Amino acid sequence: MERVRAGQGDDDDDDDDAADGDDDIGYLQASDAESLHALENLMTEFFSVSAKNERKREIEELLNNFSQQRDAWKHCFYFMTHSHNQYVIMYSMNVLEKLINHQWVGLQAADKMEIRTALNTFLLNQHNSLESFLRNKLIKLVVDIGRLDWPHFYPDFFSSILQLVQQPDTCVLGLILLHTTSEELACPREDLCMSRKAELQRLLLQQIPTVLSLLNGILSSILERHRSMVTATPPPSPTQNRSQMTLSVSPVQSSVISSSPVQSRNLVSNLFKSPQSHVQTESLPPLDAQSQYIAHLALNCLSHLFSWIPLSTTITPALLSTVFHYAAFGCEVSPGSRGDSGAMTKGSPHTVSPHTLGVLAMGCINELLSKNCVPQEFEDFLLQMFQQTFYLLQRITKDSTTNSSGNRLAELDDVYVEKFTDFLQLFVSIHLRRFEANKHFPVSDFLGLFFRYTFKQPSSEGFFACLDTWAVFLDYLLTQLGNRTVDRDSILQKYHEPLSLLLTHILQKLQFKYNQSQLDELDDDTLDDDSETEWQHFLRQCLEIVAKVAELFPTITFQLLFQPFQENLNVYLGLEQFISLNGNNIATLDVRGENECRRLHCTLRDLSSLLQAMGRLADHFIGDKYERNVADAKMLMERLSYTAAYGMKVKLYEVQSVANSVLQADFIEVHAQTLATIKAFAGWLAQFCVESLKKGDQQTEATRFLTTLLDTVLALFITNIPEKMIQSAAHLLWSLLCTVRSPTLVRHDKLQQFYNTTSHGALEHRKLQVQYLVYRSLSHYLLLPWSGCTDGEQCWEMRATHHKQFIHQLFSSYLQLQDVSPMIDNRHMQNNAKPCVKKSLQMLTDIISSLAPDGTSRSKQICYQSVQDLIQVTLALFPVYLHMTDVTIEFLEFFLVLFDCLKVQMGAEFTKQIIQTFVSIFTREQLTEIILQESATGYKVIEKYLAILQVIVQEPGSSFKTFLPNVIAISMEQIYPVIAERPAPDIKPSLYSLLHQLLMHNWRYFYKSSVLHRMQDCTEDVENQEQFLSIMQAFGQSFLQPDIDVFRQNLEALQSLNQSWKLYSKKLFRDLMLFQFLNVLIQVLLHKSHDLLQEEITITIYNMASVDFTSFFETFLLQILNGCEGLDSNQKMILGENFKHDKDLPSFTQNVQRFVNDLRYYRLCNSSLPEGSIKL
């Protein structure tokens, strides 16, 4: 730092020196003093409440004009040194900042020296009196100069900072300078060339050992002063006898981390032992305000340094020990308690609590732990870090004697607890694998501490964060068990006890029986962004861990779950004896005491939760686990089916009680969850039915299960029950009919009756979602193959007949609209029929689309035969409702599903008929009108239309290839010209997706030559060349548009075309399009318009260049450079020479990034040079 006097004199001298108008501020034409006075007035006026926008614009223009004057910076130094107005000082600094960052290269050396000297002098003289934001801005200016000039033209930049850090009166200033230097030089902005960035990185790394040593010295000296105070006057402590709860403060005395290499076995065996110490940290007095502030700055700086420096021996054991001593400050009670009393003076500008130091220290530790790449020589240090942190974990999980709950975590600073949770997450996710296999590593002890930490969390968010870490640990174990080389039994035995304990406590945590006070506080009404209430989120998080533990220990999990489940279920099933009829013949629950009602409420809530937990175990009873768990599954299904029947018989959801508003909702929830749990076990029920058909001895039992469940479910649809229960019933019906698919159900009388009543509109009063699910279930039971039956036993003919009857009856109202002639010009009839048309189309779409995943060709054929008449009605109605876009969308969605699922069954001729209908309806004029209306529904119509065309072009059959000319004409002649130049992204993704799929699935439409022909003849025969070029030009045009999603989509499309069909290698593409695409992509990188796709763009450039690297390096780069404006010939030559001819992807990527960065840098430099300057 240059300690010389600034070049400004006193006010009178400056007034005399102002000689001409070149040095005036704008229109003022006055001396510096008068200009300063005018500037202060302007700033005051600008920021006043009464200033109007028009006047503010005038002032902005005036100030901008002044800042663009060549010597404006000289006046700014006068303003800074002679004004106390914060706005004036900030404005002056902004002018200097613009000069430094944009015009520094063009300044004379003497001017640079003057600016540098003046800034340093002003900073040294005024850093204590300036507001912090002004001081930090000033520091930023000094560092910006160092970023540009150090060490060549500013050799003492860094050494002067280190000197400031070591001086007591400038230590604060030096630490802020050091932190800012780390921020600005370690990861500099784009306004430096790559070589300069690398140079700065190298220079900084050379200084790191010195910097870390200085920071450690500062932090250690504060701790030493701390230790001396405690030694002189040791205060009494209620925990004085806990000799194991001590922590060394003096770095000299600390034996926690030795500077010599350690034996891992000795270290890990003592991992949780307390370090030796003479001082108890629980009774440490607070630091003085200045020491805390300096420690705060040093830790902040250290945290940023740790974020970018590599793990190496420069991070010494002494430094780590010091950081952990500060981390112990967070173990004190939270602000407002004794740990904060007297620590700072009220109103101090640099108020820092001791807990903040603990937070910052944990941030430093987490920065180190977040590095996945750990040198082998650093692993010993990692172990020592874990020793320190686990010791802190022991401290904060011990019971407290200063609050009623005894929970020490509740007394700590929230942010500190969050940082500690982050540490545990980083340790488990990144580093546990390094040490878990070590038989001396105390994994069980660690899990025990983490277990205590988890269940002592004072907030739900903290508890969820811990559960996330447990989930990471469980995933790690599951991955380990998936490795065939490991001893599965030994791993399970090792973690049996801790995970059983975890499971037990999580089950208690989610039950009102054990945790009512906390669970009552969770909101169960308001939905969050994930459509969950706070209670639902809590339960889901807990059940996720239960499910993961069940993957490791399914039997133990089932046993731990079944006991409380059985207890709560017995209470529920015993409620019938407490139901009686009152004088009005209304069922009443004879549970009247407040405590009894509360206990019943808790029992029902717990039963609902445990039912959901049971449902999460369903996968552990099927597949290869079926035989060994069949007895438990049968017992559970017996209980569940009985519970469902019991709920339907007793109708507890209708029973009145003294706590009706609470208990009624509980009864509904239990019944709904019972049905949902049975649905979860539908896979087991299907396997049980198949096995019973094979063996024969259990067939009666399987039939009994199914009929009991089916009777219970069907009965729910004919009674007036709450909507939540009917939704669960509809989902269970789907599972019974479409997952189990037992042939025995087809003869069930109640099911046949249900087919009849449903097709005649018995469910019309239900919600559409329920209706669609039921209709889909009934349809698919007749379409999908029955489980356990051979093809000869499927009864396809009978089922086809019943399905057609069911569909025709269900859509009888729609079929009556087949004569559309009266509706064509009758808007009233159209509006009357509109609800029927929309609902029918939605129902048809749902039935057909849901058939696609599981349907066989026979299933689809039966479905097509059933809906064939409905398709004809739809074709007739389509033109009638074309003017109603909301109905048109439903038509197109139906046809889209029809083409996607049943196009083979329809055949080419019928498909051609439909396409011709579309072509005649959607003329170019019609499409243009819809697009230009710019309505959301209109866009959806076009998108659905394009999606239908996409399905057609993807069909491999030769009969569908005849549609390609029409599809290309519709896309490129009717739709693309309208939307090409429109900046809005609407419709474009759908159009480009169609073009991509057209090329992917119809490449031979353009390139028909065989492989043998291409081997014998080097020429490429391209058919329909104009169409191909127009499509590729459309892709190229999209890269000039701002929408990043379309850009990404089309990059991926080009890459897939190249991977499948070698697009970039085609002569036509190389000769006519390769240079254009490369040029556009390079320009996109230069302008940073799609910076989020930088990696994808660079990979695409590499793939295009790899077709002919020689041409790329020797021809393309020269063409790019020759076309670049704002560069001189020497700069172009340097850019070309610096682009190394590496052909591997990582090196090529670095070269492209360097090329783009340096080109941008040269342009920036040249634009900031004054006229007549010699460019670099």
TrEMBL record:
One of its GO terms (cellular component) is cytoplasm. Residues 1-24 are annotated as: Disordered. Residues 132-231 form the Exportin-1/Importin-beta-like domain. Pfam families: IBN_N, Xpo1. The keyword Glycoprotein does not apply. One of its GO terms (biological process) is protein export from nucleus. Keywords: Cytoplasm, Nucleus, Protein transport, Transport. It is found in: Cytoplasm; Nucleus. InterPro entries: ARM-like (IPR011989), ARM-type_fold (IPR016024), Exportin-1/Importin-b-like (IPR013598), Importin-beta_N (IPR001494), XPO6 (IPR040016). GO terms for molecular function: nuclear export signal receptor activity; small GTPase binding. Residues 9-24 have a biased composition (Acidic residues). PANTHER family: EXPORTIN-6. This is Exportin 6.
